[in-house]
Amino acid sequence: MHAWPASEVPALPGKGRDLRIHDTATGGLVTLDPGPVARIYVCGITPYDATHMGHAATYNAFDLVQRVWLDTKRQVHYVQNVTDVDDPLLERAVRDGIEWDGLAERETALFREDMTALRMLPPQHYIGAVEAIPGIVPLVERLRDSGAAYELEGDTYFSVDADPHFGSVSNLDAAAMRLLSAERGGDPDRPGKKNPLDPMLWMAAREGEPSWDGGSLGQGRPGWHIECVAIALDHLGMGFDVQGGGSDLAFPHHEMGASHAQALTGEFPMAKAYVHAGMVALDGEKMSKSKGNLVFVSALRREGVDPAAIRLALLDHHYRSDWEWTDQVLADAVARLDRWRAAVSRPDGPSAEALVEEIREALADDLDAPTALIAVDRWAEAQSTDGGTDEGAPGVVSRAVDALLGVAL
């Protein structure tokens, strides 16, 4: 599966700072110190409704992570999946009377268009669950053969008790885990499971649903968590730098995925940091496909909204915060974009060297994009009121905003 085209990232003078970021597993800030190649895995969409503002906020956060690393003169190895077969996708296809794979292809293509418009840097490997199945089956068989998985009425489940580190990502108690499991795709009340929290690794074929050859597992399709594990281990290996996604993925998805990988390899941890973006609400409720309260990037683009303004609206909220999308949020972003573009359109202006360092410092401090925006606001205000004599300053600001914030002026 192909990703989307990469926008050019301008090179800036000097060098960025190492990133300090909040790690869900430890509950505090950690300083990431990757090698020459930083490794990141970000969980992708289930393509049955793309791309809403919650998606955009999440991928914007991890785009900033990449930009900070690139500014430290590292390379970035970025992997993202597409869950292109899963219950919600199949249910939507039935509801709409269309083929499930056609729906997945259509929404994935729209997602690519939105990511391109928003100048999100693409992954080097963009892998669908379906194409990963040949690599998933052997992992499930290994877990079963080692005693870390078991069969129940043809389905194969992972035993969370097989991983002594289970629970170390989300740090939730069993009651909270059971509640979230029921809400987020698990089946804690199914009779016969060794532990109510045990997640499915391989679902035996159901009538009317797609299935694939699972070797000794029989016909079926993979569970949600093992999909990402297979892709991550194949392309990044254990101990990669950042596992990313929305905060609703900390449990069960990232918790279960970590345990799968740790049981398979005997190594700990799967990722050095688990980083989660906040949720975006509309009319007081989290945006979600089930509620239908979605604001789509593609719809805004069709209305003529500049994608750079959409990106500024996202950047105006700290990536870990939960916030609400409103018309005013977008209007403020459009006004800010106009001010910035007017400021960099002049032939000279105030010196920009200090501003570049302010942006770098803010982003290195747990991706504090709102503080970076305020710094650019101050420069633009000084440009409009006092001007300046540095002929190269507007160009430096334009390149810095592009390279570090992903906003083309």
Architecture blueprint of SSEs:
Elements: E1 20-23, E2 28-31, E3 37-42, H1 53-71, E4 75-82, H2 87-96, H3 100-117, E5 125-128, H4 129-145, E6 149-152, E7 155-158, H5 174-183, E8 200-204, E9 220-222, H6 224-235, E10 240-246, H7 250-265, E11 271-277, E12 280-282, E13 285-286, H8 297-302, H9 307-315, E14 323-324, H10 327-344, H11 353-364, H12 369-385, H13 393-405
Parallel strand pairs: 3-4, 3-10, 4-5, 10-11, 12-14
Antiparallel strand pairs: 1-2, 6-7, 7-8, 8-9, 12-13
Helix pairs in contact: 4-6, 6-7, 9-10, 10-12, 11-12, 11-13
Textual characterization of the structure:
This protein is of the alpha/beta class and 409 residues long. Helices cover 43% and strands 15% of the residues. The strands form four sheets. The protein has a five-stranded parallel sheet, sandwiched between helices. The chain has a four-stranded antiparallel sheet with strand order 6-7-8-9. Helix 9 packs across helix 10. The protein is globular, with a radius of gyration of 22 Å. 48% of the residues are buried. The model has no long low-confidence stretch (mean pLDDT 96).
**Given this structure, which CATH class of the largest domain is correct?**
Alpha Beta
- Count of DSSP E strands? 14
Order of helices and strands: EEEHEHHEHEEHEEHEHEEEHHEHHHH
Mean pLDDT, to the nearest integer, reads 96
- Walk across the major sheet and give the strand order: 5-4-3-10-11
At CATH level 3, the topology of the largest domain is Rossmann fold
Model regions low in confidence, pLDDT < 50 over at least 5 residues = none
> What's the helical proportion of residues?
40-55%
Number of helices: 13
Based on the coordinates given, report the CATH architecture of the largest domain: 3-Layer(aba) Sandwich
**What is the count of distinct domains?**
2
Which structural class do you get from the secondary structure elements?
alpha/beta
Shape: globular
What's the main sheet like?
5 strands, parallel
Q: Can you say what the CATH homologous superfamily of the largest domain is?
A: HUPs
Distance between the termini: 31 Å
Kindly estimate the percentage of residues that lie in beta strands according to DSSP.
Answer: 15-25%
Write down the Rg: 22 Å
